[in-house]
Design brief:
single chain, alpha/beta, Arc Repressor Mutant, subunit A, D-Maltodextrin-Binding Protein, domain 2, 3 domains, 5-stranded mixed sheet, 10 helices
Length: about 290
């Protein structure tokens, strides 16, 4: 059995379609179909039920997939163990991250990462929605949110306090709130469905309203910079406008707005590819140097 054919089977199982596997592996759909058929002939069993729209593992396929996964991981681990210390990363690094964080914290790392690892490719998917890490064949998801229980492996990357902030012009016109109750009298910029701002780990809360709301963190930040009100965003979302004094941090005397740390989520596996280790090391170092 060829290991690349085992990886092909795992990708088909993960995506649920031959065309999806073809896209992830950068192969023609016909090549995927031929290689799957060759693997089935070699094993003497049918591994996948094919329909015009989707595929599903047969009982034999369900039985075989864990063994295929173990063989692929063992081969990758052996390569990593034998690789020299100065080995360069290769392959396609598939990352998903929140849009603002990806633009401000990850994108600055990409040019040097690619220059230092010429055989590496980066596929960065910026979205504020929760992406199915395993189903979409991603290597790592960066999350800025409380984590849900899952089978994924979570690694804390950096602290990330929540920050109340507004444009200096807004604060000059409307004054600076000092206490939690003062916020009720201000125009507060809210992410849709989040009109309760909590403090002290949820022990206190205040209902806030304003003339502008959005589903986008980037839009909330832009509205704050334009003087439309007070925003409650994470440090990494507003670090740059705070440093450039487009926004001013507001200190609330009787409550702590809390934190939503930066996490890396990884598929459940024993082996971490070099491309992922290199990326996480760079990101962790950069956040530590620029952190709050």
């Amino acid at each position: 059995m060829e290991l690349h054919d085992l990886n092909l089977l795992l990708t088909i199982a993960r995506t649920g379609s031959l065309s999806g596997a073809a896209r992830q592996l950068d192969l023609a759909p016909m090549a995927v179909s031929r290689r799957l058929a060759a693997l089935e002939r070699e094993l003497g069993v049918r591994l996948v039920h094919r329909t015009t729209r989707s595929v599903a593992l047969t009982p034999e396929g369900e039985t075989f997939v864990p063994y295929a996964q173990a063989m692929v991981e063992a081969e990758e681990a052996a390569r990593a163990a034998l690789a020299p210390a100065n080995a360069t990363a290769s392959g396609t690094l598939r990352i998903t991250a929140p849009e603002v964080f990806g633009q401000t914290a990850i994108m600055p790392l990409v040019p040097r990462l690619l220059a230092d690892h010429p055989a590496l490719r980066v596929d960065l998917r910026l979205t504020d929605r929760i992406v199915d890490l395993v189903g979409e064949g991603l290597d790592v998801a960066i999350r800025i949110a409380p984590l849900r229980d899952s089978a994924l492996v979570a690694k804390r990357i950096a602290p990330n306090p929540l920050v109340l902030c507004a444009a200096p012009a807004y604060l000059k016109r409307h004054g600076v709130p000092r206490r939690i109750d003062d916020l009720a009298a201000h125009s507060c910029l809210v992410l849709q469905g989040m009109n309760q701002w909590t403090f002290d780990d949820g022990a206190r809360a205040v209902h806030v309203e304003g003339a502008f709301s959005s589903t986008s963190v980037g839009a909330i930040r832009a509205a704050a910079e334009q003087g439309l009100g007070i925003a409650r965003l994470s440090y990494w979302d507003v670090r740059q406008p705070l440093a450039e004094r487009r926004l001013k941090r507001i200190a609330i005397e009787d409550g702590d707005p809390g934190a939503v740390d930066v996490w890396a989520l990884l598929p459940t596996r024993r082996y971490l590819p070099l491309r992922v280790r290199v990326f996480l090391d760079r990101l962790t170092t950069a956040l530590a140097q620029a952190g709050p």
